């Protein structure tokens, strides 16, 4: 029998645990959090920023030429205004279906993914008569844009124990009398086929591992095949052997450098001057009082150093073990009325091999229920984002708050009932994050 601890007691337990932990380093200085020395971190950052060329295996379909292109504001690894396009349709069976997108005048149909790439490498000198640009068919009437996420501090997020997130979801549900219930998704660890963990990365919580996340993005955003994702989306216009990403003299591939770079990033820093002001402090209290902090959880603590995670493929290092950090997010899925209706495409995110190995497991999961849910956006660094919510459609903090419905409807209503000066205090607090 599962024993549910009252939220207030859980908070005391977490606070006690945090008292024995160290605080996560913060800043936008491109320095390592301790996972790697600064020289190694700088070298990994250069890989993260490297521009991929057709001669490197770029494409054939792609969105960007480097990780930095989508993750750089104010420093590499942070967020951006760049958005990706995802589409699909609801079939006669009432279920979401991924699109079928013809390319090269119908010579091939791209399927098994919701992502639609904005760019293609041909026509070019080698393939002057091939035109493979993806375009959205009229049949695909479920459409959304999703902003690129910040990766800063995600090493700490990866090091949070699954049980911490599972317990958090249970306590949310109980304390709110089932009005706010974060959904936990168990997802495959691509580097450990057959192993699962609690998803926490991506707008749909599609990954639990930063290496899995890196392999996914390298293929689907840049078209670079790698050991985790060795199959091209299309072989049209492709003249490279697979995988494109091969190990260097140190035995590491680009995706290894990407994952290590992200794990070593510092957490986003607050505006300390604004945060120390009376108005922001008042706003923080109101933020908690009206219920925003139920999902935008201030503090989490990582598992101890030496803990095996990601299906046993990664051991939490000292720099990430028993560390307290402040994301202002729960990394769970919620329906706040802004869901895009897109179901995560399992073959796209996990690759053909893992998809086949785990097809039986995946077919039994209730991923369909997450269609209209979005991962809670962690608010650390939100003051640096000019476009808000998953689709970037909210341009002010006030508009973003007012847009919250669904599970967050009562919280949004409480915000609207506050005096204007109290609303402004919450906005001032958010501007300090």
Give the arrangement of secondary structure elements.
Layout: H1 7-19, E1 22-23, H2 38-49, E2 61-62, E3 83-90, E4 96-97, E5 101-103, E6 108-110, E7 115-116, E8 119-120, E9 142-147, H3 154-158, H4 162-175, E10 186-188, E11 196-198, H5 210-220, H6 254-263, H7 272-275, H8 278-289, E12 300-301, E13 308-309, E14 314-315, E15 323-325, E16 333-334, H9 346-357, H10 359-363, E17 374-375, H11 397-403, H12 409-417, H13 420-431
Parallel strand pairs: 1-15
Antiparallel strand pairs: 2-8, 3-4, 3-7, 3-9, 5-6, 10-11, 12-15, 13-14, 16-17
Helix pairs in contact: 2-6, 5-6, 5-9, 8-13
Walkthrough of the structure:
- The protein has 433 residues and is an alpha+beta fold.
- It has 13 helices and 17 strands.
- The strands form seven sheets. Strands 3, 4, 7 and 9 form a four-stranded antiparallel sheet that branches. Strands 1-15-12 form a three-stranded mixed sheet, covered by helices on one side. Strands 2-8 form a two-stranded antiparallel sheet.
- A hairpin with a 7-residue loop joins strand 10 (186-188) and strand 11.
- The longest helix is centred in the middle third of the chain and has 14 residues, at 162-175.
- The radius of gyration is 22 Å and the shape is globular.
- It starts with 6 loop residues before the first helix and ends with a helix.
- The relative contact order is 0.16.
- Mean pLDDT is 94; it is low at 1-19.
What is shown here, in short?
The chain has 13 helices and 17 strands.
